[in-house]
Amino acid sequence: MSLITEIGHGLSGLEQLRAFIASGKRPGIGDALDFDLVEVNEGFAAFEGVPGPHAYNPMGMVHGGYFATLLDSACGCAVHSRLTAQQGYTSLELKTAFHKAMTGETGRVRAEGRVLTIGRRVAFAEASLLDAQGRLYATATSTLLVFDR
């Protein structure tokens, strides 16, 4: 059983995510990469984390997978916030553009995701990854499949 199902059975997607934040729990990926869901509204989700050695590639820079994971999470949860209690979603495609390198000195970063459109079966979302000074590190667009559970 997923943490969301465990916390928010029978709640709308937005209610599930708000209950998840209130619980203080993290999914495994949040523990592994040290990031949290920090804000959610209808069609919007934000994750924050501090990159460090746990996310470094062999060159001593933050691995692109860290960027992509935060952006994918922000897009996915933005869509999740628009779903009913009977719906689920999965990412079909994520296109990521890297604008600036990141290191442990970058400090806290924030991925903000927004729903562009959502239909019965497919949703489109976008996200941006910024530091505390508003510098842009990466952007992404995502296509997600919406389904009945």
Distinctive features:
149 residues; alpha+beta; Thiol Ester Dehydrase, Chain A; 6-stranded antiparallel β-sheet; 4 helices
Named at the architecture level, the CATH assignment is: Roll
> In the CATH hierarchy, what is the superfamily?
Hotdog Thioesterase
CATH classification class: Alpha Beta
Note the overall shape.
globular
**Order of the strands making up the biggest sheet:** 1-2-4-5-6-3
Q: Tell me about the biggest sheet?
A: 6 strands, antiparallel
- What is the percentage of strand-forming residues? 35-45%
Distance from N terminus to C terminus (CA atoms, Å) equals 13 Å
SSE-based structural type: alpha+beta
Number of strands: 6
Instruction: Write down the overall mean pLDDT.
Output: 93
Please bin the fraction of helical residues. Answer: 25-40%
Q: What is the name of the CATH topology?
A: Thiol Ester Dehydrase, Chain A
Order of helices and strands: HHHEEHEEEE
What is the count of DSSP helices, taking H or I runs of 4+ residues? 4
Domain count, please report it.
1
pLDDT < 50 stretches: none
Cα gyration radius (Å):
15 Å
What does this protein look like?
- The chain has 149 residues and is an alpha+beta fold.
- It has one domain (3-148): Hotdog Thioesterase (Thiol Ester Dehydrase, Chain A).
- The chain has 4 helices and 6 strands, in the order αααββαββββ.
- Strands 1-2-4-5-6-3 form a 6-stranded antiparallel β-sheet.
Give me the secondary-structure topology.
Blueprint: H1 3-8, H2 13-23, H3 28-33, E1 35-41, E2 44-49, H4 64-80, E3 87-98, E4 109-118, E5 122-131, E6 136-148
Antiparallel strand pairs: 1-2, 2-4, 3-6, 4-5, 5-6
